[in-house]
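Example S7 (structure tokens).
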């Protein structure tokens, strides 16, 4: 991993200012440049206004806003970016203007500087071929609003070097983006299927298949989205839809070209009228047509190697905020229905053919299978990436099974010395998939939860006892099962962005994948109870001080830290250690006597008053049964072998998941504070 110390953004309009804002928010110095001081100040004003709204909504403090703004240099001086690691162009869509800009940047920027275009209309290669560093040129397509939307399409052209791709993906991660790497093709991935989605809605209106309210409602039902295509165009701008469809039509064919009604509406300079009554008799016809176009185009772009089925779905869910991606929708409605609605589109439009991918899947007669765990082996290190960023890599049956498969494959590589686990996107692993638990509780399938958890324990024990060195790379959010996966590794390397926490008692359950027993072996039962009962986060500096984490390094130091651990050999993971003074008050607060007091709602004895008050208040929002069972499990696990301790943990799962508090906590997670009844 390389370091990103400075990023330049050319263009201070809505897009450029948003990109600069996001970069600064994530702690990276950024230089925002425009041609005139008035444009620069306008961009700075946009950023300041959005951050001010963040203060009003209690997202930011004034001190945080001041810190963010201090990282932004707003100027007309191009010399301010000569030493930038990355420069992102975000000017208006004029090919000549962009080419002239890149030639100037190529002349003044350091040889190390990667140049990137935010174009949505042109091939990336058209700009790369105009400069002397095509190997250090790439597309980075942001989605509006770039300070809020997490998706980033990273688009290498044929001559982009692997190092440039890697550094661009790193830059995306460092400023909070989920990157999907896509082919340099018209529309890239998301606009390739989203623009026809908008255009087809207008064609339906043009052909009098249905009116706007009916098309809106049918689209919402088909794709499970909050806004239909006409409302979306009103929000994002009808000219943008026309421009994007024109580009696709010119490059690919008439099927993608904007229909006359869409162009006419742009000429009127009016929004679409949305009022009216839904005609239920026409809804199904609209649903079938909209599905046929969107699903057909999605399959076509995968056929052409533009993106994988997984990244196509991520584009929809993260970039467009759809509940389901196109291929998940195909699985929901079935391959036969999918084939039929797409077949109808091929009959209607002569230049749109049935994608080979759908022909193949139709013959197989089964749903698409998604890959959520990747394995890469290089220079004696196997890297296993949990790649489900749209769900913050939450653990479910599919992901755990694939994790097991990739780990088995990695162990079989004779030349592999270390196996590194990491998460894609902003999270390492944000716990287990709560929907899985809720669905099984409601279906009275609690034994399935126990079976799933047992498989997780078996895998984690294999990871802990592997003959290969197993390392967790914590460079993002880690909650519950994610922290437990990290703790099962023989060593943990973290960046300052890493974190650990056990929030389970706040949703009616307890950490069920070894978090309690492994924390106890690291820091003792008292401090383990402090973190498990309260759910308080552990920052990486504290985790390092406690000996849980082997090293805390900047992203640029990760590879060296891995090599250092390999050189040192298998670590003594649970070596005896003395708690630093900082943690002694927390541990003493959870002595046996104090735990009895805390579980009855009383103040702990001999504890700092402020900390005691904070802990008592926090425990008041936890599930009483979950606290009691967690306490009993931790006490029972002391002195037991690891397999015996695991069985103790598994032995209480059916009990905890059968409680009303578990269903209440899991069902309300992330929506509202649960109301626990102690039952």
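Recovered sequence:
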């Amino acid at each position: 991993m390389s370091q990103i110390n400075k990023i330049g953004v050319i263009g201070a309009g809505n897009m450029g200012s948003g990109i600069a804002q996001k970069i600064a928010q994530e702690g990276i110095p950024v230089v925002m440049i425009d041609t005139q001081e008035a444009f620069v100040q306008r961009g700075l004003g946009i950023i300041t206004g959005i951050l001010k709204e963040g203060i009003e909504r209690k997202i930011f403090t004034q001190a945080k806003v001041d810190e963010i703004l201090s990282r932004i240099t707003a100027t007309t001086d191009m010399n301010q970016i000569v030493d930038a690691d990355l420069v992102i162009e975000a000017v208006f869509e004029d090919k000549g203007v962009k080419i002239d800009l890149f030639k100037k940047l190529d002349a003044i920027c350091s040889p190390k500087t990667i140049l990137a275009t935010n174009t949505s209309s042109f091939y990336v290669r058209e700009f790369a071929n105009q400069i002397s560093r095509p190997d250090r040129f790439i597309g980075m397509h942001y989605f509006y609003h770039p300070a809020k939307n997490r998706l980033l399409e990273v688009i290498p052209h044929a001559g982009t070097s692997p190092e440039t791709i890697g550094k661009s993906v790193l830059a995306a991660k460092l400023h909070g983006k989920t990157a999907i790497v896509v082919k340099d093709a018209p529309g890239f991935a998301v606009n390739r299927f989203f623009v026809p989605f908008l255009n087809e809605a207008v064609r339906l209106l043009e052909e009098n298949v249905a009116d706007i309210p009916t098309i809106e409602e049918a689209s919402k039902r088909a794709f499970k989205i909050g806004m239909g295509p006409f409302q979306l165009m009103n929000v994002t701008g009808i000219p943008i839809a026309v421009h994007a469809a024109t580009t696709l039509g010119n490059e690919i064919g008439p099927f993608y070209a904007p229909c006359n009604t869409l162009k006419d509406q742009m000429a009127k300079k009016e929004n679409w009228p949305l009022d009216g009554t839904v005609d239920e008799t026409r809804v199904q016809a609209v649903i079938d047509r909209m599905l046929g176009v969107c699903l057909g185009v999605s399959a076509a772009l995968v056929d052409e190697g533009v993106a994988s089925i997984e990244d196509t779905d991520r584009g929809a869910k993260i970039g467009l905020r759809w509940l389901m991606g196109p291929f998940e929708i195909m699985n929901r409605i079935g391959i036969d229905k999918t084939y039929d609605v797409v077949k109808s589109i091929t009959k209607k439009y002569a230049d749109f053919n049935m994608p080979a991918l759908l022909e193949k899947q139709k013959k197989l007669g089964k749903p698409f299978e998604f890959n959520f765990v990747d394995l890469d082996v290089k220079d004696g290190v196997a890297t296993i990436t949990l790649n489900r960023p749209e769900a913050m890599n939450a653990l479910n049956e599919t992901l755990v099974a694939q994790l097991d498969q990739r780990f088995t494959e990695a162990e079989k590589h004779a030349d592999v010395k270390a196996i590194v686990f990491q998460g894609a996107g902003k999270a390492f692993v944000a716990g287990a998939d709560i929907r899985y638990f809720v669905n099984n509780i409601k279906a009275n399938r609690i034994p399935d939860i126990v079976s799933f958890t047992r498989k997780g324990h078996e895998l984690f024990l294999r990871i802990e006892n592997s003959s290969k060195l197993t390392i967790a790379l914590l460079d993002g959010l880690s909650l519950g099962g994610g922290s437990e996966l990290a703790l099962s590794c023989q060593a943990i390397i973290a960046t300052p962005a890493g974190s650990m926490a056990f929030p389970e008692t706040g949703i009616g359950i307890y950490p069920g994948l070894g978090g309690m027993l492994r924390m106890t072996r690291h820091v003792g039962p008292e401090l383990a109870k402090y973190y498990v009962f309260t759910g308080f986060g552990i920052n990486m500096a504290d985790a390092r001080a406690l000996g849980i984490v082997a090293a805390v390094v900047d992203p640029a130091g990760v590879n060296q830290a891995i090599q250092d651990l390999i050189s040192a050999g298998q670590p003594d993971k649970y070596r005896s250690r003395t708690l630093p003074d900082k943690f002694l008050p927390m541990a003493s607060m959870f002595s046996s006597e104090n735990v009895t007091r805390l579980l009855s709602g009383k103040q702990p004895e001999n504890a700092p008053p402020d900390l005691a008050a904070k802990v008592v208040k926090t425990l008041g929002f936890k599930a009483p049964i979950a606290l009691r069972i967690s306490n009993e499990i931790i006490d029972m696990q002391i002195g037991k072998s690891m397999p015996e301790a695991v069985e103790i943990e598994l032995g209480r799962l059916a009990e905890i998941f059968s409680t009303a508090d578990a269903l209440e906590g899991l069902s309300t997670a992330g929506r509202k504070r649960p109301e626990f009844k102690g039952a």
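Notes on this example. The radius of gyration is 27 Å.
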